[in-house]
Write a structure and sequence with these properties.
Length: 769
Amino acid sequence: MPDRGSRSIRQIVLSNIFTYFNGIFAILAGLLIAAGSFRSLTFVPVVLANMGLGIAQQIYAKKVLDKLALLDVSDFTAVRDGKDVRVPSAELVLGDLIRLESGQQVPADAIVADGCAGVNESLLTGEADEVQKVSGSELKSGSFLTSGRLLARLTHVGADSYAARLTLKAKESRDRPSEMVRDIEWIIRIAGILIIPVGGLLLYQGMKVNGQTFAKAVPSMVSAVIGMIPEGLYLLATVALAMSAARLAFSKVMLHDMHSTETLARVDVLCVDKTGTITSSDMKVTEMLLPAGCDPGREQDARNLLARYVSTAADSNITMKAIRDAVPDMPTLEGSRFTPFDSRRKYSEICMPDGTAFRLGAPEFLLTKEQLEQDRGILNSRAEEGRRVLALTERRAPEGNGSGEKKGAVSGGEGDPGLLWQPVLFIVLDNELRENAADTFRDFAAEGVKVMVISGDNPLTVSRVAQKAEIPDAGRYVDASALDTEEKLKEAVSRYTVFGRVKPEQKKALVDALKAKGLKVAMTGDGVNDILAMKAADCSIAMGSGSDAARQAAQVVLLDSDFSHMHQIVAEGRRDINNITRSATLFLYKNIFSLLLAAFSIMATFTYPLKPSQVSLISTFNIGLPAFLLALEANEQKQEGSFLRKTLLGAMPAALTSFFSIASMVMFAQMFHIPEADVSVASTYLLAVVGFLILLNSAKPWNRWRIAVIVICAFGFIISADRLSGLFEMRDISGRAAALSVVFALAQITVMRWLTQLFSWIESKFERK
């Protein structure tokens, strides 16, 4: 198949070098060299350092993820030289005969050579209906088996297969940008559009209106333009997400979508299946019981019938495997016709040539109300213990006079009027709770995430298991077979926590109902019956022990099936959101201020007061270094509201304060005839004061690490301004300029406090809405 994995090292390097803003930086550097303003090139090392850091960290993350991807490869059984051999999907070739069973995804286009199975093509067609495939039927790559077994011959492989032709569309669907990344891209697009006309107008104003030389006009224009470029914002987001993926990889968590950690961190409802999620995938038979009133001497015959049934049945799900482990090997039922288990019907069936038939499945779907009432004690007592009960039933055609009556039999059987069905044996199965499942659900409850259990099992059984796992409100359960309208489903998601007897299409409908209420929904699953709901959810998580199809459809795969990793994934997502939000506020402060001051400079026809080297000094110690150091810190606070609104409203107080302060000081300096060089230095100090004020605000609540970062950045700024004054053009200023700076700096503190309160009030109004 065409490689849909991580980018190559060459692609990483080229994508970090050849960017729109790097092109702008190259043009600006060329103009400065042409103008002979070499000291103004101090932004170049910063750009190169950002580029190198981004390349190094993304290559590191790629290597970690590539190693993990080797564990996420599906193997298939191929018939070669008359022998069954296990072959990785990438090594299958045209003409291979492969064996497929329930839960496996079809790896390449094929023709069924033998067998019968139910196949779901929803990942390709969007249609949820199961399609029966028999000998001669066509199989499309990307579809998956929901029941039965097949022997198939591959007809189209690699780029010629059906799934490969849909790769680009599928990849775009799964790799949709998250809210945060989408907002960052919008900010960058706006900045990219504005810098060209603003830069051109500043250069025109400097040379044509103010009569400056090319050598003097270029540095002023460059200062404004580089101040408007959020050069490190997208890089910071990309690197943060890549490093989160690498850290999760060490815990055997595979991200098919890099943005899924952010989505999961914002989730309101986590929908989980019982088997394979709350409980382990290891299932065992604990009891086999005869129906009420049945002769105890028939128990061995009933067990032998069960053994022959599972020997004949082609289903290979964990339930059938558990039953096969619990019974002796017996001959198959010769001449029989097997209908695989169907998650909608809730049973499988074997029909004999003489009209006798057997079914194995959920008692509620196989027995009449009278039969259920007779065995209510058996069924309810096991359900109360959180155990699952299956029924083996037998149907024999009416004998003798055709009256349709047979002593001891109960008429019934869906779709079989006039035929007789009897319960033969009840099989009780049990799954152990996953280790740390209760701790994980407690963590989600503490973080305000509602957990809902959606299962195909008996609702009482599911409820008791959920209570053992300490899921809040697990006692509120409902039988989903009674939710037969859209209105009932919508009402149920507001009232209940546990849903039992849920059909696959109902799982999707429940997820859609939650999303319709404006909630962000995550769905976990391990089987093919979970896939439709996983696709509908905002974020999908699959267990490594689950079916191939579920793993391929999911955005996140827990390769070791350890559900406790969920807390780590959420923590990583919140770390990314919180740290990138804080860093974006710092970047936008400089960008908005630079745009406002540039526009005012054009309208008021005065020279942009800052030098490129001074902007680089501010960018390093007020933005770049603190953003990088603070991004190293864990931060699990849940973020509410829009990323774009939060960052814009967070940056506006500082941007407006600096703009009004420096614009006013420039006007006063002209009145008092203060030299432009002094104004540039004074403006740099004023910009730094507000920069550290917003850094103090965004770092709240303070702790030792955050205080240390602020102190390091403050000392770095002071030492660089003093010891590298020639490089950053931070010369000594006159007494009048110093006095003016102090006055405006004190005023900035007050104005900043007032504006912060104002914009905090505005943000609170938005949040209430």
